[in-house]
Structures are given as C-alpha cells and as structure tokens.
Amino acid sequence: MTEPAPAAPSLGTRSTRWLAVPLLAFALVSLTAGLLARHSPRSKGYFRLFFSDPVHLKAGFATAAVALACFQLFSAAWIFRKLPWPRPRWIGRAHRWSGRLAFAFTLPVAYHCIFKLGFQDPDTRVLAHSLLGCAVYGAFAAKVTIVRLHRFQRWVLPVAGALLFSVLVGVWYTSALWLYQHTTSAAPAYAVPSPIPASANAAAGAAVFKTAGCAGCHTLAAAHAGGQIGPNLDTLKPNYAQVLAQVTNGGGGMPSFAKTLTAAQIRNVAAYVASNAGG
Ligand code: HEC
C-alpha cells in the first residue's frame, strides 16, 4: 500500500483504460473454462474422497469455499478499516491464506464440473450454474490482476472482490444449497407407489440401460452394473415415476436424456429399473 516509487508518474492512479486488462483476463479465463467444458457428461474418472458420492463432494467443497469467501469479505473490510476494531497485524496474511485455501477448495469441484460433467443447460438452474461456474475463475483472474497491477482507482478492488464473491455464492446457491434442500424435501416421495404402465416394456429397457450409459454411473445388480457416480439403484429402489422423471429431467449431476432417448425408451428403462432394483 505504501510502496516507495522512484518516479512521480508511476505514483498516480491508473487511468480507466487500464480496466481493460482485468476485463480481458475475466473474458479469456471464463471462455477457456466454457470451452474446456464443452462436452457431454463423461462416465469415468470421478472421485468422492470421504463423501457419499461425487455430487456431495462437490457440494461439500463448494460450501467450504463459500464459508472462506465470507471470511474474505470480513477480513477485507477489516484491512480497509471498515470495522470498529483496530486492525490486527495478522489480518493481511489471514486474508491472503484464506483466499488461497478457498481457491484450492474450488479445484475438486471444478475438476468434476469442467472435465467430467461439462456445460449443461436442461433447465434454468443448471444453465445459470454452468454460466456462473465458468465466470468464477474469470472473476478470480480479474481480481488477482487488479491486486498485482496496483494503483487502480479506489473503488476497483472492492468492486472486483464483491463480484467474485457474488459469482461464487451464485454457483453455490444454484448447486450445493439446491442439493441440500432437494435431497431432504424429495425424500417422502419414495413412499408413494407408482405402478408401471402397460405401455412400458421392462425387457426392452434392459438394452436402453446398457446403451444409454446408466451403468457407467449407477450400480444395478440385475444389469451387472457397478457405477459409483450416482446413487446405488439397488439401495435406492426408485419407483417407475421417479426413474421416469429423473431420466427425463436429469438433475443433481445426472444429465437429462430427453433429447437422446425417445419417450418410449425412457418408459422402458424406467420400467426396467423399477422392476429390477433391489432384486
Ligand atoms: C453421468 C452420470 C450419470 C448417468 C449417465 C446416469 N445417471 Fe442417474 N444419477 C446420477 C447422479 C449423480 C444422480 C443423483 C442425482 C441427485 O442427487 O439428485 C442420479 C440419480 C438417479 C436416480 C435417482 C433419482 C431420485 O429420484 O433420487 C435414478 C432413478 C437414476 N439416476 C437413473 C438413471 C438411469 C435409468 C440412467 C440411464 C438412462 C442414468 N441414471 C444415467 C448420475 C448419472
């Protein structure tokens, strides 16, 4: 902040034109993330560490990153003397290290989102999540650029920090928070019985299960499937309507099959899973 500078011109505030640099960093990095994520979901290479599945791993790390980001906001306010208490000497270091840790916590999430699941747009929530996800590292790059270049106008750094914070919270809001609310509120639905209609052919559904890639993500003994990414279907024992809805709409890390399977194929695979899970 109080760096001695030899020549007078270098002491001044940068002109507004310099804002093009962080803006360019934002655009380039966001675009790169989006381009890297341009693929359909891959079925291999996920990991879950000590979480129940990769979706909860993502949610856990994203939540930790958001918690640290809250500390970032708080410590930044302290650094700029916006809090009523005197500024402690360690606060600058705490701010930097919590920022680095938050960044590290986003990496396992980004790995799954960018390289495994890819950019998706089946509904507004997932589209918003995909867009914000690409913007996170862009906003991060912009903020780091501003910190490194110094001497921007006073409002630039707080605005960049606030934008990064908002984007991160937006990503978290459209995914982890949604997941936690969704998993609890969806639970009672499993008690409702749902008969398999005559128009659905479970035997034909077995082939759909194999070719559509369900086996890569789900365990289902009847299909000799051992996928670990989504829930174990033998344990979950979903009924017909639940499989139908999930395969049609996707969600929670599973792609929608509405565009890749016909309505009849979806009915068949739903009948197959509903009548074979847990058997
Ligand atoms: C890329 C991996 C992936 C593929 C491919 C996949 N799923 Fe899933 N599936 C998931 C994940 C992850 C979840 C957990 C969603 C959640 O927590 O909301 C899930 C959830 C489910 C559920 C539970 C829905 C509920 O109500 O909780 C069912 C049933 C299901 N999948 C069936 C299928 C079928 C049938 C196919 C093939 C047509 C399939 N899945 C393909 C990853 C996948």
Could you describe the 3D structure shown?
A hairpin with a 4-residue loop joins strand 1 (219-220) and strand 2 (225-226). A two-stranded antiparallel ribbon has the order 1-2. It starts with 19 loop residues before the first helix and ends with a helix. It is an all-alpha fold. It has 2 domains: 13-185, no CATH class; 192-276, Cytochrome Bc1 Complex, Chain D, domain 2 (Orthogonal Bundle), CATH 1.10.760.10. It is built from 11 helices and 2 strands; from the N terminus they run H-H-H-H-H-H-H-H-E-E-H-H-H. Helix 2 (54-79) runs antiparallel to helix 3 (91-117) and helix 4 (124-149) runs antiparallel to helix 5. The protein is elongated and about 75 Å long. 33% of the residues are buried. The site of heme C has 26 residues, from helix 8, helix 10 and helix 11.
Q: What is the terminal separation in angstroms?
A: 67 Å
Shape: elongated
Instruction: Assign the structural class, choosing from mainly alpha, mainly beta, alpha/beta, alpha+beta, or little secondary structure.
Output: mainly alpha
Mean pLDDT: 82
Overall tally of domains: 2
Please describe the structure with a list of short key phrases separated by commas or semicolons.
279 residues; two-stranded antiparallel ribbon; Cytochrome Bc1 Complex, Chain D, domain 2; 11 helices; single chain; 2 domains; 1% strand; 2 strands; mainly alpha; binds heme C; disordered N terminus; 60% helix
